[in-house]
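Chapter summary example.
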Amino acid sequence: MIRFVDLRSHFGRHVSHADEVITDVNRRRVMVRAHDDSFTIAWDYPGRTLLEVRILRSSEGPAESADDGLGQGQELVYEDVTGSFRDAGLLTDRSYFYTVFARHPGEAWVLWGDYPVPARSEKVAQGQAAR
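The structure predicted for these 131 residues follows.
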């Protein structure tokens, strides 16, 4: 549903972002935090428009598409409309790749980003190389 706001009726009043109906799926803010054994991602999408978010995880590499390789190296770990996801209990000796997609319900998936989580041994090696 597309809703048009007649700004003339809002003249002299503050128009909140909560009143907006956003159609560009790429307008978002994504926050990512990786710990040794967990990965947390949170997102913020302006307005009241509902978005579906799909997150795929793999130890082989990022996904090419939202349906790419499910069951063949890509695992669906999240699909919902809430604003955050936490994946706990990760093995510290394994690297993970999270690929995040979003869409308006029923429309095509749009890539939001790929987020690598290196194995702990890779993090230690990177830290020593930086010295």
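To summarize the output: The beta strands are 29-34, 38-44, 52-58, 75-80, 84-88, 96-103, 110-117.
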